[in-house]
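Our preliminary data section would be incomplete without showing what the modeling component actually yields. Below, a chain of 163 amino acids is followed by its predicted structure, encoded as tokens that our downstream tools consume directly.
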Amino acid sequence: MESPPINERDFASLIKQHSRIINKVSYFYATDKVSFDDIRQEIYVNIWLGLSQFRGKSEMSTWIYRIAVNSALMTLRSSKKRIETVSVDFGLLNISTEIDDAQRDNLQYLHSLINRLEDIEKAIILLWLDEYSYDEIADTLGLKRNTVATKIHRIKDKLSKQI
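Predicted structure:
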């Protein structure tokens, strides 16, 4: 297991190494009321503050995913009002230029459907799409494995009905 960084340079390296996770979570939870940068900044702060508590019982990436999702959810909750999600700005996504227009349209449509999900559903499906196991998703989000399995089934049903 990785040990937590002890200085700013190591912290910057850790952030760079896990930037894909941090940016993706920030991106999917950003709204017109809480910006991508605000969420990302909260994630950075919470990672820095929590590093002393990281004990290596899970992978660093799993721990960072958990911090990122929890930070995003707390930031949204603290904005006081219930926030509606906004459409995704695909300029921030790293969509390969090797895919054709039909694939790009399908990917954009999938992202728009995911943006309509509730916050916890969004977190679950993003982890699942990143090929995390049910056990890893449960560990990352602090849920039971059976709850994750049930929610994934319901999310798939919800998304398929919107297609």
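Residues 1-84 form a domain with the Rna Polymerase Sigma Factor; Chain: A fold (CATH 1.10.1740.10). The CA atoms of residues 1 and 58 lie 8 Å apart. Preliminary results of this kind motivate Aim 1 of the renewal.
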